[in-house]
Write a structure and sequence with these properties.
Layout: H1 8-22, H2 27-48
């Protein structure tokens, strides 16, 4: 599968991995940050859901 035809989430993941690796962010820091980001976006997604 070409990245050009990959789903948006795969393209975003590749871009984020490249950014993190280029900036030599330690894996533990990345995982801690991703946990925070996940919680934030789960709250955003829940807020979008109709009651």
């Amino acid at each position: 599968m070409s990245l050009d035809t990959a789903p948006d989430e795969v393209k975003l993941a590749v871009d984020l991995i490249q950014l993190l690796e280029e900036n030599q962010i330690p894996p533990a820091t990345v995982l801690a940050a991703l946990a925070i980001i996940r919680r934030d976006y789960e709250h955003k997604l829940a807020a979008e859901q109709p009651a």
